[in-house]
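Service request form, structural biology core

Requester: graduate student, group of Dr. S.
Request type: structure prediction, single chain
Budget code: on file
Notes: please return the result as structure tokens.

Sequence provided:
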Amino acid sequence: MDPSLNTDGAPATPQVKLRTAALSVVSNSCLILLKVVAGSITGSVAILTEAVHSSIDLVASMVAFFSVRKAGEPADESHRYGHEKLENLAAAIEGILILVGSAAIAFQAVRHLTGGGRVQRLGVGIAVVAFSLIANVIVSTVIARTARATSSPALEGDAAHLRTDALTSLAVLIGLALVQITGAQWLDPVVALVVAAAIVVTGVRLLLGSSRVLVDEALPPDQVALIRGAIEEFAGRGVVGYHELRTRQAGARRYVDLHVQFRSGTSLEDAHRTAHELQDVIGTRLGGADVLIHLEPEDRVRPGEELRRAAAGAFRPGGADDPA
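Core staff response, request fulfilled:
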């Protein structure tokens, strides 16, 4: 079993996810205040752009908080498949916000680079940025751990925001130290431009990852292989073939549906019982997936879709789950 699909111990509750998202909101709010004060005192464009970055992080954290709360609601008449995809939508919004933030940082840096300006009282700025770096490392680690435990795209996006903020804080810290050592004022906006470029990479990666889920991309090959293996193990239980295997993901939940053919003479009761057992096996291996199986008779099996054992007793690889 793929260890990444299941967590050790009991799964985290929706309340844990909400508390983790709230932690990010509180952390970003405090850091914004500190950075604005430090940027105003020192005149550092790098620190002020860090405040802009944290402001975007705050918006993203609030999006994550409300999406996690909404995604935890059960399915209703308007959303029969639940609300889990709201987390993926939130992750996409966070990716867009990261890109917007990078543009704002680049604009301010270029304006400061061409218009001049001096950085002063660097000790205050260095202290605030160092504190911000430590805080973001701690908070992002907590959020990332919860994101992995709950397979939450929204929290994963929030953790990515804070990790990026920590990296940019490190870059700003190095830049301020170099300005203090060398007196080269141009280093401050140049560091801000480097920060903006790093943020773009994170934003694009997050946006692409969430978009793949929103367009119902199939589950990764290793997870599909787990499904195939589970089906093949039921060949001795009357299963003779399967097709139309389809997979997708919404938030933390995975969805699987397929058509399964049963040997001629298998009663509806036996086929129904076997199908439910197969659903349980697939669901367990995928960490609680929602599995739907359509029952079909043996005469619906088409060449290349049947289950066969090789001479050594293993199943013939491939071909069994090719979509019709």
